[in-house]
Each structure stands twice: as C-alpha cells, then as structure tokens.
Amino acid sequence: MQSKYYSLWLVAVCTVVFIFQIIFPQITDQFALYNSRVFSEPWLLVTSIFLHGGFQHLFFNMFALGLFGLILENIIGSRNFLLVFFSSGIVASIGAAMFYPASLGASGAIYGILGTLAVLRPKMSVWVFGVPMPMFVAAILWALIDIVGMFAPSGIANAAHIFGLGFGVIIGLLLRKKFKEKKLMEKPLSPDEEEAIDYYIEYNF
Q1: Residue 114 buriedness (CB in 10 A; 0-12 / 13-18 / 19+)
Q2: What's this model's pTM, rounded to 2 decimal places?
Q3: What pairs with residue 102 in β-bridges?
C-alpha cells in the first residue's frame, strides 16, 4: 500500500505552526484548548493538536509522529492514518478538557497511533527504557505510567494520553480484520528504527 507520507506532512505543519507561535504568541492563547471555551469554540479540540508548549515538547512529539506514524501509515494507508490521527486527537482533547483547564499538543493523537499499532502489530518489537518488548506489552506499560501520572503530579496531560491510546485500540480492533499480520506481512524494524524508538521512549517519560 503506497504511502503519501501524510505523517511527515503533519510533522511539517506542526513545526511551521510552532514557528508562528514564537513569532505571534497570541496564536497559542487563541487556539489552545481551554475547557471553559470548548463548548463555545469546539474547533479548539482540533487546533490545539497542532500547538506545542516549547521546543522539547515539539521535538519529542514530532519524533514519535514521524517514526510511529510512518510505520502505521505504511500498514493501513494514508487515508486511514489520517482517520486515526484526527479522531484519536479529538477524543484525547475531549479527555483533556475533562481534567485540565488548558492543554495543547499532538501527544493524544500520537498515542492513538500507538494504540492502533498495538492491535495491528502486537508482536512488533520496541525498546522501552532499554528493554525490548512486544508492542502490546509496551502499550500496557505506557497506559500504566499515565494512570499513575493521573494521581501524581507529572506536568503531562496523562488523561489525553489515556483517551488517545484507548481510542487507538478501538480503531485498531475495527481495522484488524483487514490489516492483521497474517494478511499483511509485517516489515521488520531496522536496527536504526529500533534505536530511534528506544531513544524516544527513554526521553519522553
């Protein structure tokens, strides 16, 4: 299935938006997700996905989006990938609005990608904190970390991660019949891809 590299286009869009955030700081206030404004300005559920709170926030999110996004896009196709990204991002934004007065970032949408991969490629090996494990085990670990983060101050929108990951799992279950491993052979990760995944996990949690 030919990829149109929408994941990389999304990385580019988020990067350009971040540059505009630096030049015009009012953009962040206008388009970030504020739970007090979500009913009167529902588009904030989408616009907040493309905003980031700093370079480190942007870097790690875009690193993950480019890496995991390309893997998923190559499996399910570009159109389905966009469906996963935006639907998971919106659900994650709704979850964030339920728990935080303000939030922003693409991590909820990215966790949706991770959740979908955990269903479609559960045996795909990833490195978490220097330990290789199947993708579905990693997803469970990430969920547990965020559940703990809900009760311990972490400075991270853990609820957005949980909602995004959970919705990604649901989408994965809906797509599983068509894209499960025995129907579409999984392409093994290269050593460079495995090292990149390990780097992201080590510095994002």
Answers
A1: buried
A2: 0.86
A3: 34
| Beta strands 33-34 and 102-103, pairing class | antiparallel
Q: How far apart are CA 68 and CA 102, in angstroms?
A: 26
For the chain, what are the domain ranges? 6-204
Show Cβ contacts of residue 145 under 8 Å, excluding neighbours closer than 6 positions: 205
Instruction: Give the pLDDT confidence of 65-76 residue by residue, as tens digits.
Output: 999 999 999 999
- Cβ–Cβ < 8 Å for 138, 187: no
* Residue whose token pair is 């926030």: 57
Q: Which CATH fold topology does 6-204 show?
A: Rhomboid-like fold (1.20.1540)
Structure tokens at 24: 């015009």
The sign of the torsion formed by the CA atoms of 66, 60, 132, 171 equals negative
The count of other CB atoms within 10 Å of the CB of residue 28 is: 19
Residues in the chain: 205
The pLDDT-based confidence of 185 (bands split at 50, 70, 90) is: very low
144 is written with which tokens? Answer: 């547990």
CA 156 to chain centre: 14
